[in-house]
Amino acid sequence: MSSSLPSVAALDSEIQSVIRTAGDFARQEFEVFNFDTVEYKAENDPFTYVDVRTEELLKEGLSQLIPGAGFTTEEAKSQATKNGWEWIIDPIDGTSNFTHGIPHFSISVGLAYQKKMMAGYVFQPVGEVMYHAQKGQGAWENERPLRISPRADLPYALVATGFPYSDMGWRREWVDLVVNVLDAAHGVRRFGSAALDLANVAAGRLDVFFEFNLKSWDVAAGSLLVQEAGGLVTDFQGGNDYIYGRQIVASNGHLHAPMLALLEHFTALVFPPTGKS
Ligand code: IPD
Ligand code: CA
Ligand code: CA
After folding, report:
1. Are residues 121 and 168 in the same domain?
2. DSSP letter at 79?
3. Which of 28-32, 78-82, 168-172, 230-234 has the lowest mean pLDDT?
4. In terms of residue numbers, what domain contains 215?
5. Where does residue 186 rank: exposed (0-12), middle (13-18), buried (19+ CB within 10 A)?
6. Ligand 2 centre from 195 Cα, in Å?
7. What is the maximal distance between C-alpha atoms in the chain?
8. Both 100 and 67 in a single domain?
9. The predicted structure's pLDDT at residue 263
10. How far does residue 90's CA lie from ligand 1's centre (Å)?
11. Integer CA distances (angstroms), 162 to 96, 112, 276, in order
12. Residues 63-114 pLDDT 10s
């Protein structure tokens, strides 16, 4: 496997097949899930045997496709890459929805080469919706090409975000910021799966998504979907540290500058040049 894009394209259907198989397992378990089996990594940070087994199924299948590729996954220890390729995986994004019987959850699989995203897959097992993108090739929802929304005025924009629930630092400042976004935009949504929020920006349903404290596995795949659908993804300062930097703004591009302006006060508090972060 070389670094060239056509190799990724050649693997696309096999990658999708591995993800669909893992998704079938997650959907079947969702239908019979018993809340009493939920475990906790920390207070308010639940996981289930479905998160763990779905991740194992993904790793078993994907490791066959690019031998030597590394894995960064939510539920197990990372495996270093031997050849520059790396899978970045959240087996169930939206675990709280899953455990409460809400069908809005996804599998998020990003594929990077030398830290650059080359492909991204966000699969919604309930409904079997596959969002996928390849660097420079575009983004699709199943077979349909994706395009970001044309809305250019914040007062008409539908914006999604997330609220902190395990790391409670800065939650009051975050709520103050959300109030400012509520004042400026048409509406704010909190759906509970960051990967699907990003997919919905790519699909033009949402105009903006922003969140604080996300991990690489939450955003790696979805950020490529947005970019390949014509949108813009940055950190809160407009820079490129949105996969590992715990700060992401994804938009249709038109609304990016006004959104960054709304974030300015929060960003100055939380990410000062030096001090608490
Ligand atoms: C969570 C979801 C949620 C976001 C949280 C994430 P998980 O992922 O993406 O939308 O607000 O910050 O941790 O825990 O369900 O994989
Ligand atoms: Ca997640
Ligand atoms: Ca997860």
Report:
1. no
2. B
3. 168-172
4. 154-270
5. middle
6. 7
7. 50
8. yes
9. 97
10. 10
11. 12, 25, 22
12. 999 999 999 999 999 999 999 999 999 999 999 999 999 999 999 999 999 9
262: which 2 tokens? 């709304």
* Separation of CA 156 and ligand 2 centre (Å): 28
User: Which residues, 6 or more positions from 229, have their beta carbon under 8 angstroms from its beta carbon?
Assistant: 133, 138, 139, 146, 147, 148, 201, 202, 203, 204
Closest C-alpha to 50, from 110, 97, 86: 97
For residue 90, give the ligand 1 atom closest to its CA.
Answer: 16
Residue with tokens 């079997």: 128
Position 276 in a domain: no
SS (H, E, C) 138-163: EEEECCEECCCCCCCCHHHCEEECCC
Give yes or no: residues 208 and 137 share one domain.
no
Q: How far apart are CA 97 and CA 109, in angstroms?
A: 19
Tell me the per-residue pLDDT of 42-60, one tens digit each, with 9 for 90 and over: 888 889 999 999 999 999 9
Residue 125 in contact with residue 31, Cβ under 8 Å?
A: no
Q: Is the pLDDT of residue 257 over 50?
A: yes
Please give the pLDDT value at position 168.
Answer: 73
**CB-based contact 263:236 (threshold 8 Å):** yes
Q: How far apart are CA 110 and CA 222, in angstroms?
A: 8
The strand order across the sheet containing 144-145 reads: 70-73, 85-93, 106-113, 116-124, 129-134, 138-141, 144-145
Q: Which of 170, 191, 194 lies closest to 74, judged by CA?
A: 194
Residue nearest to atom 13 of ligand 1 (CA): 214
Contact in structure between 242 and 235 (CB atoms under 8 Å): yes
What domain count does the chain have?
2
Label the pairing between strands 232-234 and 116-124. unpaired
